Amino acid sequence: MLASMAVSWTLKSKFRKYSEIGLRSGLSGREVAEMMLADNNITDVRVISTEGMLTDHYDPTNKTVNLSEGVYASRSAAAAAVAAHECGHAVQHATAYSMLKFRSAMVPALSVASRYMQWILLIGIIMIQTTLIPLAIGVALFALTTLFSFITLPVEFDASRRALAWMDTRGIVTTQEHAMAKDSLKWAAMTYVVAALGSLASLLYYASLLLGGGRRE
């Protein structure tokens, strides 16, 4: 939890810092996104604005790149990096990137697991002296969510790689701006790394309860 808070604070701090430095090309986040989509021959994805800070995401269900208010109209290295990153997901979708397909295929099962997992784990802990079945089911569901967290990592890293490579090739950023964009995306990726490790730690905790309960039986 402390690591997650530290990474989140650092990400917001970096984003605010780099958002104050104007992009030499003068392009807004929206313009960067539209250019990257066009360069990859993606014509069926819309770029829209969404409320909040760092709420940027690509929605494959309605094919929209959703840019937060601080990115959509901003003309900074941070905004360009985030906009290009989200378009990186659109490119993954358009090119049937294998890890994204695998991740998307897990979503239906994950939604069910997330809905009932905590209740099943609670029941399992309460009944651990009687039966291990509910806790075992809960651990299995938690393992699914943990797997999803780790599968998300290569998807996010690949989107950032695509974004940085395209911005360099297109001349969107200077060498200094590239460093700022890379740093922004690095800390954004760290939030997913910490989330995955946190999920793994929790999974190991519940698994230890399951194994300990089994020995007591």
From TrEMBL:
Residues that span the membrane, as ranges: 119-151, 189-211
One Pfam entry name: Zn_peptidase_2
Species classification: Bacteria, Pseudomonadati, Bacteroidota, Cytophagia, Cytophagales
Organism: Adhaeribacter aerolatus
Alphabetically ordered keywords of this record: Membrane, Transmembrane, Transmembrane helix
Protein name: Membrane protein
